[in-house]
UniProtKB/TrEMBL annotation:
GO MF, any single term: lyase activity
The protein, known as: Hydroxymethylglutaryl-CoA lyase
Keyword presence, Repeat: no
Pfam families, A to Z: HMGL-like
Taxonomic path: Bacteria, Bacillati, Bacillota, Bacilli, Bacillales
The entry's keywords: Lyase, Metal-binding
InterPro entries: Aldolase_TIM, HMGL, PYR_CT
Organism from which the protein derives: Chryseomicrobium palamuruense
Length: 283
């Protein structure tokens, strides 16, 4: 049976904008974020504390966090201790970390193998949790890798288990390049739900093959009630060639509402929110 209510985690200000070539002024990002909050978004990835040489668009991370209204759960994405220190310094209370299932992807994205990345994250994640931060782990390339192709389900489960052992509160499992089919979505999320019943489980779909809504419906049927999405369908990882934007929040919300599933989000205000950054987006 389907859930009565679904939580949307808006990733537009982070995943959505990170790949945009045009520099979006900080004030416009803040207007976007606050309009999304006003539309009823309660959980959001605001920005990322990554190397500005790798991802110039996120260079204003500290300012974004400092100037964002503190309501709901506002995440910042961090790859390492340095990012976590900057996140704490900025006043963030919820941190997202990210590692892919695929070694080759991790080398391109964070210049580390999967094992190196997990090794360097163990103590900092445990420390964040001891200090009361909310930690979400984003599992990239859980279906396909742009360099290695199809990933093994056993490897996805093993990586998730490692994050669970570190104590994370949430797993956000991602179809980084938007290649999963609804059958694969149902199979993986069904297994994940059985394997990790006590953690928040979120599905993160990119929409390259335009199957993201179908993948979400399949994941809903597997028991998932949390979805990452991006206003306007913005987004993509700069180090995952071929990936297009995240599934558009307005399309997910509309589909859910049409099925009688509550999200707490106002569709009209949501559409308006995207206008704050629309003119900067090169499409
Ligand atoms: P590196 O070059 O191997 O590391 O990069 P380094 O330690 O040698 O540092 C290089 C420079 O970056 C140094 O500065 C560091 O100080 C600095 P320099 O001495 O050259 O002036 N630095 C930092 N600066 C700011 N914040 C930091 C930080 N760390 C080091 N945290 C590194 C390694 C991880 C830094 C780099 O590879 C990086 O920043 N990667 C980020 C890539 C990224 O943001 N990808 C997109 C997000 S993931 C994604 O989109 C997928 C997701 O949506 C789920 C899905 O769809 O799959 C989450
Ligand atoms: Mg993504």
């Amino acid at each position: 049976s389907l859930p009565n209510r679904v939580t949307i985690i808006e990733v537009g200000p982070r995943d959505g904008l990170q790949n945009e070539k045009n520099n979006v002024p900080t004030e416009q990002k803040l207007a976007f974020i606050h309009a999304l909050q006003d539309a009823g978004i309660k959980e959001m990835e605001l920005t990322s504390f990554v190397s500005p040489k790798w991802v110039p668009q996120m260079a204003d991370a500290a300012e974004i966090v400092k100037l964002t209204k503190k309501v709901g759960r506002q995440f910042v994405l961090t790859p390492n201790q340095r990012g976590m220190d900057a996140a704490k310094e900025s006043g963030a209370k919820s941190v997202a970390v990210f590692v892919g299932v695929s070694n080759s992807f991790n080398k391109k994205n964070i210049n580390k193998t999967t094992d190196e990345a997990m090794g360097q994250l163990e103590q900092p994640i445990k420390e964040l949790i001891r200090e009361g931060y909310f930690v979400r782990a984003c599992i990239s390339t859980a279906f396909y890798c742009p360099y290695e192709g199809k990933q093994r389900v056993e490897d996805v489960l093993a990586l998730c288990q490692r994050f669970i052992d570190y104590g994370v509160h949430e797993l956000s499992v991602a179809d980084t390049i938007g290649k999963a089919s609804p059958k694969e979505s149902h199979e993986l999320f069904y297994l994940l739900k059985q394997a990790f019943p006590n953690v928040l489980l979120t599905a993160h779909f990119h929409d390259t093959e335009k199957m993201a809504l179908a993948n979400i419906f399949a994941a809903l049927q597997a028991g998932v009630d949390r979805f990452d999405s991006s206003a306007g369908g913005l987004g993509g990882c700069p180090f995952a060639p071929g990936a297009t934007g995240n599934v558009a929040t307005e399309r997910v919300v509309h589909m859910l509402h049409r099925m009688g599933i509550e999200t707490g989000i106002d569709e009209e205000k949501l559409n308006d929110a995207y206008q704050h950054v629309a003119t900067y987006v090169s499409k």
